[in-house]
Amino acid sequence: MDPSQELDQEVPEYLRIYKDGRVERLKGNERVPPSNDHHATGVSSKDVLINPATGLSACIYLPPLSGNHRSPLLVYFHGGGFCIESAFSPLYHNYINSLVTESGAVAVSIEYRLAPEHPVPTSHHDCWEAFQWVVSQTGPGAEPWIADHADLGRVVVAGDSAGGNLAYHVAMRAGGASAALGSGQALEDPVKLQGVILVHPFFWSSARLSCKTSEVVALIHAFWKAACPANIGDDDPILNPLAVGSPLLSRLGCQSALVAIAGKDGMRDRDWWFYEALTGSGWKGEAEVDEVEGEEHVFHLFNPEKEKARLLLKLFASFINRA
Predict the structure, then answer these.
(1) N or C: more exposed end of the chain, with fewer CB within 10 A?
(2) Residue 1 domain-assigned?
(3) Rounded Cα distance, 221 and 307, in Å
(4) What is the total count of domains within the chain?
(5) Domain that holds residue 108
(6) Are 81 and 11 a contacting pair, CB within 8 Å?
(7) For 138-141, which contacts have Cβ atoms below 8 Å and span 24 or more sequence positions?
(8) Half-sphere exposure of residue 265, counting CA atoms within 13 Å on the CB side?
(9) Alpha/beta hydrolase fold-3 domain spans which residues (predicted)?
(10) Is residue 113 assigned to a domain?
(11) Which residues are catalytic, by number?
(12) Residue 44: beta bridge partners?
């Protein structure tokens, strides 16, 4: 059989990897351009290149301006199992527009490199590099939408699903902890970060928890194998923040944390497990949790008009403005 047509790996309905290395993404491929003035919200957006060598980039969102007021700054990481989706897709472009409208924050949505072409932890290193770039935008030559309109003392990182995993690791590195990302990673100087929002975060483990079904396990394993071929299993510290070798949760480098959980999400119990471990870790920040009963993983992205999704958006906006 022609290697270009012979499957090597598959994440059913999402991703195909062929023997010759070709990758076929079945979802999350559409892209939309930025807008100088979103017709429904008044939010402006533009794309920026952070690292020309790697293609690391972002879309910056600016709320309608009001005098000299500086807005909180949101750094957002999209989901997609580390393998699909984009900061520039309609799904995320529309959602971040809505979140900026509701919160009044300046937002920077990060376009990190995807697996399997760039295996995990490439995504994690990209997101940390992007975060450092964002918080360094002051003085001559800085990106004006950030330098002129964002309050760099009120920075929140957030992400959903795989993006929640990325946001967690960025927050840990902001506290000076990066052990889970490889022994070759030097500890950076701690960076001031006010809050982190983990939305249905992609956490997993070998522990047998109540919501563990064969379908969920198969999907998680398929994504994780495609994203990180060198992984050490369900208790890889990148995937399991409570695994042996993971940095202490007490080092989470922010003042507040919100863990958003969906009641019918296959990761529900692990996300609760993380929240309970964080609150019992000796971390000095303030943690809160919100579970939306009866809803599936990232329901709010695919059904943003639902009342529960609207309430979740307001919760995120409130958290950002308390930063």
Answers:
(1) N
(2) no
(3) 32
(4) 1
(5) 7-321
(6) yes
(7) none
(8) 25
(9) 74-300
(10) yes
(11) 161
(12) 62
Q: Which residues contact 283 (CB under 8 A, 6 or more apart)?
A: 249, 250, 251, 252
Q: Which residue has the tokens 């809050």?
A: 195
Residue 2: inside a domain = no
Instruction: Count CB neighbours of 245 within 10 A.
Output: 13
CATH number at residue 93: 3.40.50.1820
Q: For residue 64, what are its two tokens?
A: 């309608």
Q: CA 27, 305, 261 angle in degrees (round to 5)?
A: 70
Question: H/E/C letters for each residue in the chain?
Answer: CCCCCCEEEEECCCEEEECCCCEEECCCCCCCCCCCCCCCCCCEEEEEEEECCCCEEEEEEECCCCCCCCEEEEEEECCCCCCCCCCCCHHHHHHHHHHHHHHCCEEEEEECCCCCCCCCCHHHHHHHHHHHHHHCCCCCCCCHHHHHHEEEEEEEEEEECHHHHHHHHHHHHHCCCCHHHCCCCCCCCCCCCCEEEEECCCCCCCCCCCCCCHHHHHHHHHHHHHHCCCCCCCCCCCCCCCCCCCCCHHHCCCCEEEEEEECCCCCHHHHHHHHHHHHCCCCCCEEEEEEECCCCCCHHHHCCCCHHHHHHHHHHHHHHHCC
Question: Which pTM does this prediction carry?
Answer: 0.95
